Amino acid sequence: MDEHDRDDDSGADRLRRARRGDEAAFESIYREHARAIHALALRLTGSPAAAEDITQDTFLRMFGFLSGLREDTPLRPWLKRVAANLAIDRLRRERRYSDDDALLQALDGNAAPATVAEASGLLRRLPPLARTLVWLHEMEGWSHEELARRFGRSPSWSKSILSRSLARLREHLEPAEDDDEHA
């Protein structure tokens, strides 16, 4: 048995022990996955406080659903799906995307971009809903149909928001024409 197989066995073993109420096993699972879940929640919400809440809620849900998880189910993708759904629910509760006209206007706005070195900085320039759609579609692999179902909209709505969001991100990445003329 190679090292990778032992890691898989220890993960399955930890899950079995956590199901039986072993707090150390649950803590080990938390330590292994919490940073990734928090990073996803922060990317989707743009709020450290919201990301903390979503991370906590994700693991509380996992704890409550341990008996329903199949042993062969990869845990991290399941946790990421739960966290993404919690972030979407939070957006809906806060009604931060209820006005489609305001969202589209924000995406089409011509605010002068400052130089941004990292993608997360760029994503924070998008409205919360747009940021969530971009991340879930481009990085987490959600289809337009999945996004539409989750947000209670049509796939064309998701495609439109994603297209405008990506165009806006490209604007932030491309050098201004004035800079090219003076070079």
Automatic annotation (TrEMBL):
Keywords: DNA-binding, Sigma factor, Transcription, Transcription regulation. Residues 122-169 form the RNA polymerase sigma factor 70 region 4 type domain. SUPFAM superfamilies: Sigma2 domain of RNA polymerase sigma factors, Sigma3 and sigma4 domains of RNA polymerase sigma factors. Pfam families: Sigma70_r2, Sigma70_r4_2. InterPro entries: RNA_pol_sigma-70-like, RNA_pol_sigma-70_dom, RNA_pol_sigma70_r2, RNA_pol_sigma70_r4_t2, RNA_pol_sigma_r2, RNA_pol_sigma_r3/r4-like, WH-like_DNA-bd_sf. Residues 29-96 form the RNA polymerase sigma-70 region domain. The keyword DNA-binding applies. Belongs to the sigma-70 factor family. ECF subfamily. This is RNA polymerase subunit sigma-24. It comes from Pseudoxanthomonas daejeonensis. The lineage of its organism: Bacteria, Pseudomonadati, Pseudomonadota, Gammaproteobacteria, Lysobacterales.
